[in-house]
Amino acid sequence: MRRSRWQDVTYRNPYLFALLLLIIALAVNILLQPNLVASATLNSNMRVFLPLILVAIGQAVVMIGGGIDISVGAIVSVVNALLATQIGINGDPGTATIMMGAALFVGMGAGAFNGLFVAYLRLQPIITTFASSFLFAGLALFILPNPGGGVPSLFTAFYRETILLGLPLALYVIALTLAAWALVRQTRYGRYLYAVGGKPDAAYETGVPVRAVQFSSYVVSGLMAALGGIAITLLTGSGNAQVGDPLTLSSITAAVIGGTPLSGGAGGIAGPIMGAVILGLVRNIISFANVETWWQTFVNAAIIVLALAMPGIINLVRRRNV
Amino acid sequence: MRRLTISPPLAAVLLAIVLFLLSGLLPNGFGNNPDIALAQAINIVRLSVFLGVIAAGQTLVIISGGEGIDLSAGAVVTLTAILTYTIVNGQDAQVLPALLAALVIGGAIGLVNGVGVAFLKVAPLVMTLGMAGVVSGLILVLTQGNVSGAIAPIMTRLIARPVVLGIPGAILIWAAFGALMWLLLERTRFGKHLFAIGTNRTTARLSGVNVTGMVLGVYALSGMLAGLGGFLVVGNTGVVHIRIGDPFLFPSIAAVAVGGTLLSGGKGSYAGAMAGALVLTLITSLLTTMQQPESIRRMVLGVTLLLMISIYGRQRGFRQ
């Protein structure tokens, strides 16, 4: 089937549509909240968005590799439960640092568990990671049956208040992940990931280690979920074994709005980052626009559906006009 | 040498029977009293009906392929359960209008999903996920947090109580429903076309199947079946809350997968989903009987699911 010009452009620049949405969302948000770009407001927004941004990046990597990870939210919860119980509000900085390092390995371990089943046992990603999400969510509840625990205020203050050169900490973290991604894309591994997601059979025929690449994408997703878990723990300063639940589906939405298709082999992480910011900004806009409380969920969801459907609507309209 | 093969639905049913018999050995199980065992078995089948009906829509959508899935089913169940509760308001005469409303509203939401998938080319997963959000929002707008109403005596009598030979109405409804689903999938043109578009959309289109129409129809039907599920769920529990449908969503997908229907489409049966619903409900209620905490219950459910799909959910390798 021939693609239209718009489709061609968006195919080559998958983040284009997200960028457009981001600009619109930012403009509306600034209209309602003029001090949005002041560094304090920027910081208070970005530190809230960061956990979803990190998780969405991991989700996007799995999706590029042709899979999906329904267990990311549960991994976030496990990490949060672990940190809140093992460090404690009066924990010493040494233990805290070690535990955060350990949390990264827990995340990668959980990802490796998913990868093992999906890549090497050849199970279907959706149902596998759904099943493992039960396992992880149960584990989080086992570690922390009731909300409680916490991390020292030293750490939460670092996460919440750090502003370097007028820019919040979250922006530096994002810049760092973008730089890392730019490096990874240059490597053979980066090309393998897209090949495996696009046409696994062809990739296999040309000697790409398909299983290993699929496996690794879940490890990356687990790692990013662990980072997201650390971020959300530092943000809230407390433990709740269900804190990650909403992140699973939001991370998929953010990745798709960011131009990473569920069919794999395309997209990137710049788009999903924008997608996550857009989701956050929409929430902001709704609360600043004085939408009646009972309508907020509906308006939020309707805007998201519209954003998801917009590329399709544009294509339909353009085909009519040709 | 012939490899010993056993069909997934049969395997799931066998697993359910073995698990059930083992559960008799539990301290508070049925022991060696056949009457109690029968009563427990009937009760578990009755509880499986609701998941089973909701999984029917999921089965259709998944067989239709194109990464088909319906994540709005849980929210639709909640919405239609609340609608039924409000419309019926304790009067027998209002039961039929309520059922009709549940089917129409569910079907309309499904149709919107279908439009998004078929015309706007949104991936089914995110389209139905988005609609789940919209429907949840709609529920909040409509109820403003409180629901008033009641179910009618006739619903309790037909759904929750024994009707003939000690068998509850829900099970009879499910049996008839299962037969209809089998007819729909195996004996109608709709069924033939459904498997055709699930296997390969292009060849289906070239051989004269109206693919767009089929996709629209399948999602609308899935919404309607979720609506029917909502009606039955509230008829069984007798009360509603604004999260009543959520616990059915992912199990409805898991039931389909456990029953051997490939999530990639083009293959599967409703018998599989029925067996899957039975196994999942049985495991959940066993864990509840064993009085395990929520954390253990979730972990056991996760591991069981993983084991079951590891046995026959594997996809083909590259070297074949």
Would you write up a description of this structure?
- The complex is a heterodimer of chains A (322) and B (320).
- Chain A is mostly helical and 322 residues long.
- Chain A has a single domain (39-313), classed as Orthogonal Bundle (ABC transporter involved in vitamin B12 uptake, BtuC).
- Chain A has 14 helices and 4 strands.
- Chain A has helices spanning 5-12, 16-32, 39-64, 72-86, 93-120, 125-143, 153-161, 169-186, 188-198, 200-205, 210-236, 245-257, 270-288, 296-321, and strands at residues 148-150, 163-164, 167-168, 238-239.
- Chain A has a two-stranded antiparallel sheet with strand order 1-4. Chain A has a two-stranded antiparallel sheet with strand order 2-3.
- In chain A, α4 crosses α11.
- The longest helix of chain A is centred in the first third of the chain and has 28 residues, at 93-120.
- The radius of gyration of chain A is 20 Å and the shape is globular.
- Chain B has 320 residues and is mainly α.
- Chain B has one domain.
- Chain B is 71% helix and 2% strand.
- Chain B is built from 13 helices and 2 strands; from the N terminus they run ααααααββααααααα.
- Chain B has a two-stranded antiparallel ribbon with strand order 1-2.
- Chain B starts with 7 loop residues before the first helix and ends in an 8-residue tail after the last helix.
- The mean pLDDT of chain B is 85.
- Chains A and B meet through α6, α10, α12 and α14 of A and α5, α11 and α13 of B.
